[in-house]
Amino acid sequence: MKKDREELVKKINSLPWFHQIDFGNGILSPGRTKIDVLNAQADIYFKDSIKGKTVLDIGCWDGFNSFEAKRRGASKVLATDHFAWSDQCWGNRESFELARTHTGPEVDVMDTDIADLSVENIGLFDFVLFCGVFYHLRHPFHVLEHITRSATETLIVETHMDALNEPRPAMILYPGAELNTDSGNWWGPNRPCVEAMLRDLGFSRVEFYEHPMYQDRGIFRGHR
To answer: How many CB atoms lie within 10 A of CB 190?
Structure first.
């Protein structure tokens, strides 16, 4: 038993982690986003019961939200990513698979680009998670329109925000690496902007929550 634990810890520490995952028995992966932040976000994402619901997690990375959805009673969870597991990123699907083996073996997985997430390919889901992705997109409104076709009840969007004092819907463009010295960060929307987009895409009720940890991020829950 002790040897198995040591081998698991060694394997975990050999991999890159964006999410800090609880493997049980006091074992945590060394993620960039700590587990207290992930749990606080999940309490907002899943503030309404998802027991018996189907969940699609777009941009799942190491899978914390996917595993948490299943733990909270979702009947089916599909975790998807591509960029984080590709050679364009420092992430590794092996981290996800290790975490899935130990914390969420019933979670389904698909390596697929967002453009290929069609209703024909993946079906419909009660809940769609779109967390930490919006501001990385060159064409975020177009992508939102695409993915919302798969959401029959609720879409959760978590994103970096900017232009917070502008009352009109607005987004700030980062043409270089202005945001966190990352050239993959393109946009900083404000609250009216994301709310207007979601309403235009058919969500009749949109809830906004300030991020529990970061002042420049927000969480939106769009309901059909």
So the answer is: 21
Q: Kindly state the average pLDDT of the residues 110-116.
A: 96
Q: Which domain holds residue 183?
A: 36-223
pLDDT digits (tens, 9 = 90+) for 48-77: 999 999 999 999 999 999 999 999 999 999
Does residue 137 lie within any of the structural domains? yes
- Indicate whether 4 belongs to any domain: no
To 10 degrees, what angle do helices 64-71 and 93-103 make? 20
- Residue 159 belongs to a domain with what CATH number? 3.40.50.150
Neighbours of 93 (CB within 10 A): 18
Cβ 56 vs Cβ 132: under 8 Å: no
Closest CA to 113 of 58, 48, 71, 194: 58
* Total number of domains in the chain: 1
